[in-house]
Every structure is written in C-alpha cells, then in structure tokens.
Amino acid sequence: MHLPEPRKKRSQRWKKLVEKLRKAGVNFTEPRTTVAGGALSGKTVVITGTLPTLSRVQATEAVERAGGRVTNSVSRSTSFVVAGEEPGSKLEKAKSLGVEIIDERKLKRLIGDSTSRASDS
User: What CATH superfamily classification does 44-112 receive?
Assistant: First the structure.
C-alpha cells in the first residue's frame, strides 16, 4: 500500500525544485502584454500625483498595454508626464525640462481606453 507523502515533505520538495529551476534561469513572472506598434510604442511615461479614476497600477498597466514604458523619474528622455492631484516635484522637473504634461483624460484618449468612453456615458 502506498501512503501519501506528508504535506511538509511535499512542500519542501517543491521549494527545492523551484529553487533549482530559478538557478537554471527559469523566470516565473508572467510577462506583461504590450502592443507592438501600440499608441504609446516607444514612449516613456512618468505618472505623478493621484489620478481621478485610475490607480497608479491601473495607469501603469494601461500604458504598458499600449506599448509604452513607465518610469519613476523625469528626464529629458521622458515623452510626457501624466499629472494628477498633488503631483509634487516630478511636475516641477517636467516643467523645467520642457516635458509635455497631460492629465488622465488625455492619457485615456491617447491609448483609446474603453473605460473613458464607458465612464463618459
């Protein structure tokens, strides 16, 4: 008769296997889907302040799905800054560098986000 392996041993065995796979170069994070040639393809975006309807995570995911890249700091290579309420120093830096500043509404229009049309009705 074959008895099932105790949970603790099974768990340890899985942990060892996962660690061995990681060391061999297996990546366990699912890649984010981006659109090649999307509306923001090749654009670098900074999000600052509190946006009216999107969380920072939602805004970041929307930009990435449209082919853009979100960074945390403003530089000359920043394509534009999405500014919400209480944006802080990133807004000032964008102004001083002459980087375009947009709001959430314009971001949604740029990416053709369906939530902006749904919330407008």
Answer: BRCT domain (3.40.50.10190)
User: Both tokens of residue 91?
Assistant: 């807004």
pTM attached to this predicted model: 0.66
Q: What is the 3-state secondary structure (H, E, C) of 95-116?
A: HHHCCEEECHHHHHHHHCCHHH
> Distance between CA atoms of 111 and 21, rounded to whole angstroms?
37
Return per-residue pLDDT of the chain as tens, 121 residues: 666 667 777 788 888 888 888 888 887 766 555 566 788 999 999 999 999 999 999 999 999 989 999 999 999 999 999 999 999 899 999 999 999 999 999 999 998 864 443 344 3
Residue 92, C-beta contacts closer than 8 angstroms, at least 6 positions apart = none
Tokens of 58: 């939602």
